[in-house]
Amino acid sequence: MKIELIPLQIHGDDRGSLVSLETEKNIPFDIKRVYYLFDTKEEVVRGYHAHKALKQVAIVVRGSCRFTLDDGHERIDIVLNNPAQGLLIESFMWREMSEFSQDCVLMVLADSKYDESDYVRDYEQFKTMAKNEYS
Ligand code: T46
Questions:
Q1: How far is the CA of 75 from the centre of ligand 1 (A)?
Q2: Whose CA is nearest to atom 29 of ligand 1?
Q3: Which residues are catalytic?
């Protein structure tokens, strides 16, 4: 399983740093929705779902958190702690987010509007669907 980390150029000068996110420039889809998570307690684990179609890019703009991605065959853990790095999360990828630092702000860009029917929240159902998707 391949994890894709998108390098995001920092435009920095003596005033500070700026990162720009732009469809087709550094984000590989039309951005339809942006949301962010903050004030997440350190011991909390979020996610526990996959998406049937949704593609996203996750960026930790402050602090750090751990992403566990699972394609139904393999699990990979990655710590995000760099605001100049975007984690591409393809569809049919189980995700769990944990070990949030106190100051963590996790921003997510999505290629679709919020749609609860796109979520797969049962791991066994996900495994069956992923098996069919990749076979
Ligand atoms: C994902 C990971 C990384 C909305 O009303 N609109 C939205 O756009 C989103 C994302 C959520 N919500 C509501 C639905 C729930 O009542 O916000 C509440 C918390 O959402 P959820 O429990 O799905 O949060 P996470 O952190 O488990 O998952 C979220 C995204 O939902 C998911 O797509 O990939 O972050």
A1: 21
A2: 47
A3: 49
Tell me the per-residue pLDDT of 37-83, one tens digit each, with 9 for 90 and over: 999 999 999 999 999 999 999 999 999 999 999 999 999 999 999 99
Where do the domains of the chain lie?
4-12+19-134
Please give the C-alpha separations between residue 53 and each of 41, 59, 75, 93, 113, in angstroms, as whole numbers.
Answer: 29, 20, 20, 10, 11
- Ligand 1 pocket residue status of 130, Cβ below 6 Å: no
Topology classification of domain 4-12+19-134? Jelly Rolls (2.60.120)
In the reported structure, the alpha carbon of residue 81 is separated from the centroid of ligand 1 by a whole-number distance in angstroms of 21
In whole angstroms, what is the distance from residue 135 CA to residue 118 CA?
Answer: 21
pLDDT digit string, tens, across residues 91-135: 999 999 999 999 999 999 999 999 999 999 999 999 998 888 766
**Single pTM value for the model:** 0.96
